[in-house]
Input
Amino acid sequence: MRRFLVPLTFGIAGCAILVMLGIWQVNRLAEKEAMLARIEAQIVADPVPLFSGPLEEYQAVSAEGTITGEEAHVLTSIRNRGAAFRIVSVFETGGRRVLLDRGIVDSADKDAARPQVTARIVGNYRNVEETDSFTPEPDLANRYWFARDVPAMAAALDAEPILIVLRATSETDPPATPMPVGTEGIPNDHLNYAITWFSLALAWAGMTGLWLWRIARRTD
Output
Protein backbone atom coordinates (compact mmCIF):
# COMPACT_ATOMS: atom_id res chain seq x y z
CA MET A 1 0.00 0.00 0.00
CA ARG A 2 2.93 2.36 0.58
CA ARG A 3 3.58 2.36 -3.18
CA PHE A 4 0.17 3.93 -3.72
CA LEU A 5 0.52 6.58 -0.99
CA VAL A 6 2.66 9.14 -2.84
CA PRO A 7 0.80 9.09 -6.19
CA LEU A 8 -2.57 9.00 -4.44
CA THR A 9 -1.64 11.97 -2.21
CA PHE A 10 -0.21 13.84 -5.20
CA GLY A 11 -3.33 13.11 -7.27
CA ILE A 12 -5.83 14.13 -4.55
CA ALA A 13 -3.92 17.35 -3.75
CA GLY A 14 -3.67 18.32 -7.41
CA CYS A 15 -7.35 17.65 -8.07
CA ALA A 16 -8.37 19.58 -4.97
CA ILE A 17 -6.35 22.63 -6.00
CA LEU A 18 -7.73 22.59 -9.56
CA VAL A 19 -11.31 22.15 -8.36
CA MET A 20 -10.86 25.03 -5.90
CA LEU A 21 -9.61 27.24 -8.73
CA GLY A 22 -12.66 26.26 -10.80
CA ILE A 23 -15.03 27.06 -7.92
CA TRP A 24 -13.29 30.42 -7.43
CA GLN A 25 -13.89 31.25 -11.10
CA VAL A 26 -17.57 30.29 -10.76
CA ASN A 27 -17.85 32.69 -7.83
CA ARG A 28 -16.05 35.40 -9.82
CA LEU A 29 -18.50 34.77 -12.68
CA ALA A 30 -21.46 35.46 -10.40
CA GLU A 31 -19.78 38.62 -9.09
CA LYS A 32 -18.97 39.86 -12.60
CA GLU A 33 -22.50 39.19 -13.86
CA ALA A 34 -23.91 41.12 -10.90
CA MET A 35 -21.52 43.99 -11.61
CA LEU A 36 -22.47 44.07 -15.30
CA ALA A 37 -26.15 44.06 -14.39
CA ARG A 38 -25.58 47.07 -12.11
CA ILE A 39 -23.69 48.92 -14.84
CA GLU A 40 -26.34 48.18 -17.47
CA ALA A 41 -29.06 49.44 -15.12
CA GLN A 42 -27.05 52.59 -14.46
CA ILE A 43 -26.48 53.21 -18.17
CA VAL A 44 -30.18 53.16 -19.06
CA ALA A 45 -31.44 54.81 -15.87
CA ASP A 46 -33.39 58.05 -16.06
CA PRO A 47 -30.80 60.78 -16.68
CA VAL A 48 -30.13 63.39 -14.05
CA PRO A 49 -29.05 67.00 -14.77
CA LEU A 50 -25.35 67.06 -15.53
CA PHE A 51 -24.21 69.18 -12.58
CA SER A 52 -26.83 68.11 -10.05
CA GLY A 53 -24.28 66.28 -7.91
CA PRO A 54 -21.06 64.23 -7.94
CA LEU A 55 -20.69 62.17 -11.11
CA GLU A 56 -20.35 58.39 -10.94
CA GLU A 57 -18.91 56.16 -13.64
CA TYR A 58 -21.55 55.26 -16.28
CA GLN A 59 -24.09 57.65 -14.74
CA ALA A 60 -26.81 58.79 -17.16
CA VAL A 61 -26.95 62.58 -17.42
CA SER A 62 -28.75 65.21 -19.46
CA ALA A 63 -27.98 68.82 -20.29
CA GLU A 64 -28.87 71.61 -22.68
CA GLY A 65 -26.18 73.80 -24.17
CA THR A 66 -23.98 74.52 -27.16
CA ILE A 67 -21.82 72.03 -29.02
CA THR A 68 -18.98 74.23 -30.23
CA GLY A 69 -16.75 73.69 -33.25
CA GLU A 70 -13.76 72.94 -31.01
CA GLU A 71 -12.91 69.27 -31.49
CA ALA A 72 -10.46 66.43 -30.94
CA HIS A 73 -10.46 63.59 -33.47
CA VAL A 74 -9.65 60.20 -31.93
CA LEU A 75 -8.55 57.40 -34.24
CA THR A 76 -10.47 54.18 -33.66
CA SER A 77 -11.44 51.00 -35.49
CA ILE A 78 -14.97 49.70 -35.95
CA ARG A 79 -15.72 46.07 -36.73
CA ASN A 80 -16.88 45.57 -40.34
CA ARG A 81 -16.22 49.26 -40.97
CA GLY A 82 -12.51 49.82 -40.52
CA ALA A 83 -10.75 52.97 -39.45
CA ALA A 84 -12.91 55.81 -38.16
CA PHE A 85 -12.67 58.82 -35.87
CA ARG A 86 -14.44 59.66 -32.65
CA ILE A 87 -15.47 63.31 -32.60
CA VAL A 88 -14.96 64.76 -29.14
CA SER A 89 -16.33 68.30 -28.96
CA VAL A 90 -16.52 71.01 -26.37
CA PHE A 91 -20.01 71.27 -24.87
CA GLU A 92 -20.86 74.52 -23.13
CA THR A 93 -23.65 74.43 -20.56
CA GLY A 94 -24.40 76.48 -17.48
CA GLY A 95 -21.27 78.56 -17.97
CA ARG A 96 -19.05 75.45 -17.95
CA ARG A 97 -17.18 73.61 -20.69
CA VAL A 98 -16.99 69.81 -20.76
CA LEU A 99 -16.12 67.19 -23.38
CA LEU A 100 -18.80 65.46 -25.44
CA ASP A 101 -18.04 62.27 -27.37
CA ARG A 102 -20.50 62.74 -30.26
CA GLY A 103 -19.74 59.40 -31.94
CA ILE A 104 -17.84 58.35 -35.03
CA VAL A 105 -17.34 59.53 -38.60
CA ASP A 106 -15.53 57.89 -41.51
CA SER A 107 -11.94 58.94 -42.16
CA ALA A 108 -13.02 61.01 -45.17
CA ASP A 109 -15.28 63.11 -42.92
CA LYS A 110 -12.73 63.75 -40.19
CA ASP A 111 -12.19 67.39 -41.14
CA ALA A 112 -15.70 68.11 -42.41
CA ALA A 113 -17.32 71.29 -41.12
CA ARG A 114 -19.42 70.76 -37.99
CA PRO A 115 -20.82 74.17 -37.08
CA GLN A 116 -21.76 75.24 -33.60
CA VAL A 117 -25.22 74.05 -32.59
CA THR A 118 -27.50 74.29 -29.58
CA ALA A 119 -28.84 70.93 -28.45
CA ARG A 120 -30.24 68.95 -25.57
CA ILE A 121 -28.17 65.86 -25.00
CA VAL A 122 -28.49 62.64 -23.02
CA GLY A 123 -25.38 60.60 -22.38
CA ASN A 124 -23.25 58.77 -19.85
CA TYR A 125 -20.32 60.00 -17.82
CA ARG A 126 -17.13 58.04 -18.49
CA ASN A 127 -13.79 58.19 -16.75
CA VAL A 128 -12.00 56.37 -19.54
CA GLU A 129 -8.36 55.26 -19.31
CA GLU A 130 -7.25 54.39 -22.82
CA THR A 131 -3.64 55.59 -22.80
CA ASP A 132 -0.47 53.80 -21.78
CA SER A 133 3.25 54.22 -22.31
CA PHE A 134 2.91 52.99 -25.91
CA THR A 135 0.23 55.53 -26.94
CA PRO A 136 1.70 58.00 -29.48
CA GLU A 137 1.60 61.69 -28.72
CA PRO A 138 -1.33 63.53 -30.31
CA ASP A 139 -0.89 65.79 -33.33
CA LEU A 140 -2.47 68.90 -31.86
CA ALA A 141 -2.10 70.94 -35.04
CA ASN A 142 -4.32 68.49 -36.90
CA ARG A 143 -6.51 67.59 -33.86
CA TYR A 144 -5.36 63.98 -34.35
CA TRP A 145 -5.46 61.78 -31.25
CA PHE A 146 -4.72 58.09 -30.78
CA ALA A 147 -6.79 57.55 -27.60
CA ARG A 148 -9.32 59.36 -25.46
CA ASP A 149 -6.93 61.01 -23.02
CA VAL A 150 -9.49 63.05 -21.10
CA PRO A 151 -7.12 65.27 -19.04
CA ALA A 152 -4.93 66.04 -22.07
CA MET A 153 -7.90 66.69 -24.39
CA ALA A 154 -9.50 68.92 -21.75
CA ALA A 155 -6.29 70.92 -21.44
CA ALA A 156 -5.97 71.24 -25.22
CA LEU A 157 -9.60 72.37 -25.62
CA ASP A 158 -9.73 74.54 -22.49
CA ALA A 159 -12.47 72.43 -20.90
CA GLU A 160 -13.04 70.53 -17.68
CA PRO A 161 -11.80 66.92 -17.66
CA ILE A 162 -15.36 65.59 -17.78
CA LEU A 163 -16.32 63.30 -20.68
CA ILE A 164 -19.95 62.61 -21.60
CA VAL A 165 -20.55 59.90 -24.19
CA LEU A 166 -23.58 60.86 -26.27
CA ARG A 167 -26.61 58.58 -26.25
CA ALA A 168 -29.28 60.87 -27.73
CA THR A 169 -29.39 64.41 -29.07
CA SER A 170 -32.05 66.87 -30.15
CA GLU A 171 -30.07 67.67 -33.31
CA THR A 172 -32.14 67.01 -36.43
CA ASP A 173 -29.18 65.77 -38.45
CA PRO A 174 -26.29 64.72 -36.18
CA PRO A 175 -22.94 64.84 -38.03
CA ALA A 176 -21.59 61.75 -36.24
CA THR A 177 -23.00 58.32 -35.48
CA PRO A 178 -23.37 58.02 -31.69
CA MET A 179 -21.49 55.18 -30.02
CA PRO A 180 -23.38 54.89 -26.72
CA VAL A 181 -21.75 53.42 -23.64
CA GLY A 182 -22.31 49.67 -23.20
CA THR A 183 -20.86 46.72 -21.35
CA GLU A 184 -19.62 44.91 -24.47
CA GLY A 185 -16.04 45.95 -23.86
CA ILE A 186 -15.91 44.66 -20.28
CA PRO A 187 -14.36 41.18 -20.37
CA ASN A 188 -16.20 38.32 -18.69
CA ASP A 189 -14.29 35.11 -19.38
CA HIS A 190 -14.75 33.48 -15.99
CA LEU A 191 -16.98 30.70 -17.33
CA ASN A 192 -14.26 29.66 -19.80
CA TYR A 193 -11.67 29.79 -17.03
CA ALA A 194 -13.88 27.65 -14.77
CA ILE A 195 -14.37 25.05 -17.52
CA THR A 196 -10.61 25.00 -18.08
CA TRP A 197 -9.82 24.38 -14.40
CA PHE A 198 -12.47 21.67 -14.03
CA SER A 199 -11.23 20.00 -17.24
CA LEU A 200 -7.68 20.04 -15.89
CA ALA A 201 -8.93 18.51 -12.63
CA LEU A 202 -10.62 15.72 -14.60
CA ALA A 203 -7.47 15.14 -16.64
CA TRP A 204 -5.37 15.14 -13.46
CA ALA A 205 -7.68 12.54 -11.91
CA GLY A 206 -7.42 10.40 -15.05
CA MET A 207 -3.62 10.57 -15.07
CA THR A 208 -3.55 9.73 -11.36
CA GLY A 209 -5.78 6.71 -11.99
CA LEU A 210 -3.49 5.60 -14.83
CA TRP A 211 -0.45 5.99 -12.60
CA LEU A 212 -2.06 3.88 -9.85
CA TRP A 213 -3.09 1.24 -12.40
CA ARG A 214 0.48 0.94 -13.68
CA ILE A 215 1.78 0.61 -10.11
CA ALA A 216 -0.79 -2.09 -9.45
CA ARG A 217 0.30 -3.99 -12.57
CA ARG A 218 3.95 -3.85 -11.57
CA THR A 219 3.00 -5.05 -8.09
CA ASP A 220 1.14 -8.03 -9.57
Observations:
- The radius of gyration is 27 Å.
- The helical segments are 2-43, 150-157, 190-219.
